[in-house]
Specification:
The complex is a heterodimer of chains A (about 300) and B (about 300).
Chain A lengths: L2 H14 L2 H32 L7 H19 L3 H22 L5 H21 L1 H4 L5 E2 L9 H23 L2 H11 L1 H6 L4 H27 L1 E2 L6 H14 L5 H16 L6 H16 L3 H18 L1
Antiparallel strand pairs in A: 1-2
Helix pairs in contact in A: 1-7, 2-7, 2-10, 2-11, 2-12, 3-4, 3-5, 3-10, 4-10, 7-10, 8-10, 11-12, 11-14
Chain B lengths: L2 H32 L6 H20 L4 H24 L10 H24 L13 E3 L2 E3 L1 H23 L1 H11 L1 H6 L4 H27 L5 H16 L4 H21 L5 H15 L13
Antiparallel strand pairs in B: 1-2
Helix pairs in contact in B: 1-5, 1-8, 1-9, 1-10, 2-3, 2-4, 2-8, 2-9, 3-8, 5-6, 5-8, 6-8, 9-10, 9-11, 10-11
The chains are: A mainly alpha (about 300), B mainly alpha (about 300).
Chain lengths: ~300, ~300
Amino acid sequence: MSIKATLFPIFMYAILAPLPLVSGEYYTHVLNISFYYVVMAASWNLIAGYTGQFSLAHHAFAAMGGYTSALLVIHYKIPILLGIPCGGILAGAFGYFLGTLCLRMRAIYLGLSTWAFSESFRITLSMSYKLTRGDLGLSTPRLLETAKAFPYYYIFLLLAIVCLCIMYKIVHSRIGYYMRSIRDDEEAALTMGVDTVKWKRFVFVTSSLFAGIAGAFHAHYIGLLSPVSVDFNEMAILLIMVITGGLRTFAGPIIGAISIEILSELLREYGEIRMVLFALMVIVIMRVNRDGIVGIGRTVLPRIRYSTTY
Amino acid sequence: MDSLLLSQYLIAGLVIGIIYALMAIGITFIYSIMKMINWSMGEFYMMGSYLQYFLVVYILGPHLWFVGIPISMAVIFFVGLYIQRFLLKPMFVGEMERKDEYATVITIAMMVFFRNLAVVLAGPNQFAPPDYASPTYIGPLPVSGNRFVALVGTLLILGLFYLVVRNTWVGRALRGSAQNRVGIQTAGVNVLRVDQIAFGIGVSLAAAAGALLAPIFLVWPENGAVATMKGFEIIVIGGLGSIPGSLVAGLLLGLVESMGSVLISPSFKDVYGFGLVLFLLAIRPTGLFGERQRVA
């Protein structure tokens, strides 16, 4: 890793660190949530965008991480910082299971089975009342003593930057090429000697690990977990974020998650119209420019540069 | 267990099963022709139930509820035609890569769109249309009038659907394009037009289910979610693209749910369906009537 590549994340952290001083308490909270969504969206992009496995169970892995960590902390009194990786590992293990189940499936069956997985997980959560308190919701211990958003900002910023660095390394390594080759043509990839089984499983495990860890951090920040977080709407929000930013691009999910989260807070007074608008935006993006904001940037920026130089 | 009570639950399970099957046939019909899953099917169900409620309560009056059902079906049919034309037809025009990804994203976006539009327009409240009929008897067994009406309505609609697909020119074109999209074009059929009609018919079946079930499961923005869940369970059990499969699986699901709730516990009602799905996937991955999937 070159010095530039090492310094860039630290540089980003330093630039973003003073932001809560200007944003105020409430928008600091919004930023925390949007960093959570950055990790979720980017890890879903890893599996759906780069590997082409259009999984619809990503939100379930986040809830799995959250519930695992919270229940371990509550019942076995383990430290929260140990509980969070445990949540991530369990989500990763289920990712391995789901990935193995979906190895032979093509797009439509994959979507249906991952959807069925998340729905049965949601029903199990609300049914196993004694353990998870069902629809009443489980109140989780907070990571820090305080409920103020300010100190959590640094945790979530660190989480987002570390996760993004790891994902960047994965995508820009040999594994990234394997993933893209599986997406573009699985048979051809197999012929060229890519171990498709191994790498598909790897991507399922990695992305659900990220989702589990992010979900656990989120649970210990919000202080409440409920089966609503496994509702399909949650997956739809992730999808809206990734498509708006740009599927299959690295910057897309980051831009999409932050802008959609902040936009939906700014427009909060308009209620459900926000979601109508976001859905319309996704439809328009899919019809006009399928690479989202990043794609628009890629086509518009060179033209501006062209027109200014000549 | 009283045999009368047991047979009552049996009837209830069969009735609800055949109505679930209506929904599933819509999904599988669209799949067999366009080779895509319509994730927003539940929202067409929802729109059907809203239309029916609106018609019955404000325009037709409670006695003319049976006029409302064909009207809401027809309206949703045309809505489906235009949605297909503007949003899904581009899938087949030109060289589009990754068609299923496009279809999934568009239909999930449609789901979010219609759900929230319903909340914006009519609020998040539940509405209950007036009852269609008073309780009746099948032989010695008492049956809720609404369920009985829904059963008769479903059977009529399915019969009509069967006749159209079996005997008319359009039906032949539909079956032909389900078998071979390229071959049917050499016979002079405009496949893009057939897609449009198939999508319209599929979503209007969902709307019919919504309109028929409106007094039983009520009308609210997310009432399609449960219907979609049942529909997808059924097509996985019955096999994607098989209409008889959907019927049989629908009946099976209705029976399992109703028997499970009476024999084991009613609070796990939604789990039995998934149990059945997992069991069948383990012994027969393509579903009961599904053809083996061709690789590449």
